[in-house]
């Protein structure tokens, strides 16, 4: 039962998918981060289902892409976008580390967050209009959450409290790291061997790995560690990077075919 309560806690916190209510106590969140990637699996499944609908109904690329961008927002309720906006505002302030952490606690959104969010959505929309291999993109939502969970339990925290620590402190770290590491490997195998284009899979994995390494450097340098907000920022950056990787890989395949 503890696993089911951990599953429900993860979905109640990080999605808007209805779940049975569970008591908010540490025991019920011990394995929650292990189930975090399942939310990405729901997003990926909905993305692939939407592609089938578009193909069957002859829906154009613009409407197709717009819904693809909105699916993660609808499933998660925008919780990770909130972190992206707070982190963007903090970084754009060019203040000292303590001031940046204070800015991230401010519930108001700044102009730089709006600019960053609009830019990210426009970029994602353009990439979805162009890419063909949506399977790799769908797996990316699982991969990004697996890496986010690994970062949560292995990277240094910038604060002793906060929403992130509600899941990190009670987590069974050895089990969490092991489960998430296995999911990362399964995601890598899926995009390389099941996407129908091994080269695309390799580039997607490289993009995700580079995002993970950059996230550690970025968060340590600017905040002294990670927070719940930087985790949201990381998810958005990684998912966008994976879409860009799919696009670049597909263009390279076309270029290679033309040259040879």
Q: Low-confidence spans: pLDDT under 50, at least 5 residues?
A: none
- Helical run tally: 11
In angstroms, what is the radius of gyration? 18 Å
In round numbers, the mean pLDDT is 92
| Count of domain modules | 1
Outline of the structure:
With 260 residues, this protein is mainly α. It has helices at residues 2-14, 32-57, 61-76, 79-92, 97-105, 111-130, 134-154, 165-168, 173-193, 198-223, 228-259.
Walk me through this protein's architecture.
The chain is built from eleven helices and no strands. It is an all-alpha fold and 260 residues long. The protein has one domain. Helix 3 crosses helix 6 and helix 6 runs parallel beside helix 11. The termini are far apart. 42% of the residues are buried. The mean pLDDT is 92.
Question: Secondary structure elements and their pairing?
Answer:
Elements: H1 2-14, H2 32-57, H3 61-76, H4 79-92, H5 97-105, H6 111-130, H7 134-154, H8 165-168, H9 173-193, H10 198-223, H11 228-259
Helix pairs in contact: 1-2, 2-3, 2-7, 3-6, 4-5, 4-6, 4-11, 6-11, 7-9, 7-10, 7-11, 9-10, 10-11
Descriptive terms for the model:
260 residues, single chain, mainly alpha, 11 helices, 0% strand, globular
């Amino acid at each position: 039962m503890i696993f089911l309560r951990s599953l429900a806690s993860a979905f109640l916190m990080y999605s808007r998918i209805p779940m049975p209510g569970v008591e908010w106590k540490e025991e019920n969140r011990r394995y929650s981060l292990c189930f975090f990637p399942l939310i990405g699996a729901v997003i990926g499944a909905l993305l692939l289902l939407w592609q089938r609908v578009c193909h069957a109904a002859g829906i154009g690329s613009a409407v197709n892409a717009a819904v693809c961008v909105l699916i993660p927002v609808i499933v998660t309720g925008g919780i990770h976008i909130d972190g992206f906006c707070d982190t963007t505002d903090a970084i754009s302030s060019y203040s000292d580390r303590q001031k940046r952490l204070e800015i991230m606690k401010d519930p108001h959104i700044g102009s730089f967050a709006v600019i960053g969010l609009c830019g990210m959505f426009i970029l994602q929309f353009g990439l979805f209009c162009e890419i063909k291999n949506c399977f790799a993109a769908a797996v990316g939502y699982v991969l990004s959450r697996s890496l986010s969970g690994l970062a949560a339990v292995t990277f240094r925290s910038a604060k002793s409290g906060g929403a992130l620590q509600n899941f990190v402190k009670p987590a069974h770290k050895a089990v969490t790291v092991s489960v998430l590491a296995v999911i990362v490997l399964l995601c890598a195998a899926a995009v390389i061997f099941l996407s129908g284009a091994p080269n695309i899979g390799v580039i997607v994995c490289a993009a995700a790995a580079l995002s993970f390494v950059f996230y550690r450097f970025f968060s340590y340098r600017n905040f002294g560690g990670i927070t719940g907000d930087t985790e949201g920022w990381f998810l958005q950056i990684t998912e966008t990077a994976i879409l860009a990787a799919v696009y670049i890989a597909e263009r390279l395949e076309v270029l290679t075919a033309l040259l040879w």
